[in-house]
Write a structure and sequence with these properties.
heterodimer; B: 298 residues; alpha/beta; 6-stranded mixed beta sheet; 3-stranded antiparallel beta sheet; 9 helices; 22% strand; globular
């Protein structure tokens, strides 16, 4: 991912819903209520090339 | 996927391969949505539609059109479900008349229309904006109902996001140097989103110090037990635990808060092996040879 984002020269915006899981504070042992985490990446004007 | 809104003919084949590798990698990364930026259209209509088919995630754009039919090419938005929230993502791009075969409707009107369509179905609205600072200012001033505006084409990373008229503006820089981890707590629709980055930084600092001290201690023993005869250490442990608790309590008191952590995508970040393989496949032969030669020298 690092290589790709660093050198691909993307002109886009992408969002990955990384993980919503944290320690339990709610009925669902996996998640905190009303909380979530996104991974956001945006790139422009980068080097064009598959990797480096 | 491309650097400019046009592609030199001699580079066309190679750059299309790169774009394919990017989409394959995003599939691997389980990307949830991609806002199609103007330069993503540089290889033409057929190619972007082919990429859309290849992708396991939606391409969105509320204002990119097929110039020959004047029809919109992508869904204007997508909804993403978390365990207890529905998030709405709307995409717009500024447009450029150098991308052939495409037309662009007014991004401000397009954004507002899409937001109006989803606002009653979602807990938060994210506007993904591929444009310049001028467009960002216009969007903030004129479009109602944006909770987070996520910019691409922003010159630099903004560690402390700006908030204006109820919108938090996320600028994660350029050239893919950073990935931004955006942690959001959203309790109600009324309270203002507060930036709790400094609290999270303090929590992380306390955790790091406590974890460092815990290294090598006997299993089952607490830090306090281990350092029972070291008064200074005990004081430090108490102070770190107190500081941690104070900051956790502060975050919990707030209804709505967010924390942006920019992750520099440098050598310290380990590549996902599957993605590294895709990148390797698309690496030009001469570059592979150079890399091998470089490694031999070490």
């Amino acid at each position: 991912m690092k290589l790709l984002l660093k050198h691909s020269g993307l002109m886009l915006l992408l969002i990955v819903l990384v993980a919503v899981g944290c320690k339990s504070e709610t009925t669902n042992p996996m998640y905190n209520a009303n909380e979530f985490t996104l991974m956001v990446a945006a790139s422009n004007n980068g080097e064009v090339g598959p990797c480096g | 996927m491309f650097k400019y809104p046009y592609i030199a003919e001699e580079q066309r084949y190679h750059l299309k391969e790169v774009a394919q590798a990017i989409i394959s990698s995003y599939n691997m990364m389980e990307c949830q949505v991609m806002n199609v930026g103007t330069n993503d259209l540089a290889a033409g209509l057929d190619f972007i539609l082919e990429m859309k088919k290849t992708a396991n995630f939606p391409f969105i754009s509320a204002n990119a059109k097929d110039a020959s039919t004047d029809k919109f090419l992508f869904e204007p938005y997508t909804l993403v479900e978390t365990h207890d929230q529905t998030l709405g993502f709307v995409g717009i791009t500024k447009g450029d008349n150098r991308v052939k075969e495409f037309a662009f409707s007014d991004p401000i009107e397009a954004a507002q229309k899409a937001i109006d369509e989803i606002k009653d179905k979602v807990d938060l609205v994210f506007l993904m904006a591929n444009g310049d600072d001028k467009l960002e200012r216009a969007l903030i001033a004129e479009v109602k109902g944006i909770d987070f505006l996520i910019r691409s084409k922003s010159g630099s990373l903004q560690r402390n996001p700006k908030q204006q008229d109820g919108t938090t503006i996320i600028r994660i820089g350029k050239q893919g140097k950073y990935a931004g981890v955006l942690r959001i707590r959203n309790i109600d629709a009324i309270s203002q989103m507060k930036n709790v980055s400094s609290q999270y930084t303090r929590i992380k600092f306390a955790d790091n110090r406590l974890n460092a001290m815990a290294k090598g201690i006997e299993e089952g023993k607490t830090l306090e037990e281990h350092f029972a005869n070291d008064e200074n250490r005990l004081k430090l442990i108490t102070r770190l635990r107190d500081e941690r608790k104070t900051n956790v309590d502060l975050i919990k008191k707030l209804k709505n808060s967010y924390y942006l952590e920019p992750i520099p995508l440098n050598e310290k970040i380990e590549d996902t092996p599957e993605v590294a393989l895709i990148v390797e496949d698309y690496m030009p032969e001469e570059k592979k040879t150079n890399e091998k030669d470089n490694h031999k020298g070490h």
